[in-house]
Amino acid sequence: MEILRFKTNINCASCVSNVTPVLTELLAESGWKVDTAAPDKILTVHTETVSAATIIAALQKVGYTAVLL
What we know:
By secondary structure, this protein is of the alpha+beta class. The chain has helices at residues 13-27, 52-61, and strands at 2-8, 32-35, 42-47, 66-68. The protein has a 4-stranded antiparallel beta sheet, with helices on one face. It is globular and about 25 Å long.
């Protein structure tokens, strides 16, 4: 399993609620979490099949940015 980390603009619990449907659909089996307390709002993703580009594009569709670290 690959671990991907992204710098995001997912800032608060409301933002996490907004991205939850998108990320859960993509990564339901693998899992993900956002550290909103970290300065870079780090999204950590565990995946075997979903690419970083797919995650970035999915977040952009709901108004958020992500940069692969």
